[in-house]
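1st attempt posting a full record on here, be nice pls
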Amino acid sequence: MNNYLALIISMKFYRVTPKPYLKLRIIATLIDYGIFWVLFYVYVSSVGEQTGENAWTVNGWPALVVPVFWLLYFVGIEALNQATPGHDICKLKVFKPDGHKITLYDALKRRICDPIDLMPFGIPALICISKTDKHQRLGDLLANTMVAKIADMTEIEVTF
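the predicted structure (as tokens):
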């Protein structure tokens, strides 16, 4: 009786078919920044000093809470979950073009471009999403990431 060992190697590859999802991305961004601004307002109005009618200021160490919360909410949650709460509600995820998960550094690079992408009513982001092959905004181009639904990802398994 001959016994032999069969070595089987299996590898998974992912292909993401990008779509623009402009409406969903706008809704997700509005949800995320809506949550952020409400929490920002509550924090500043409860911790800050009132400087005038409907005007508050936060100075010193308490002022660091706002950027730290921004980092945790947008960068941290996105790196851990591949989506912020707004993206989750809209069933959108952030992927690398090969379908792999993003890293904390990728999420930071994506979000560092938010002021450029979003300030003038999101027009730069909308133009980039409309004009790039993978429907990427400036932050996605910098981080080499893309936004898609899980249904847009095809898994291919190759066995040797």
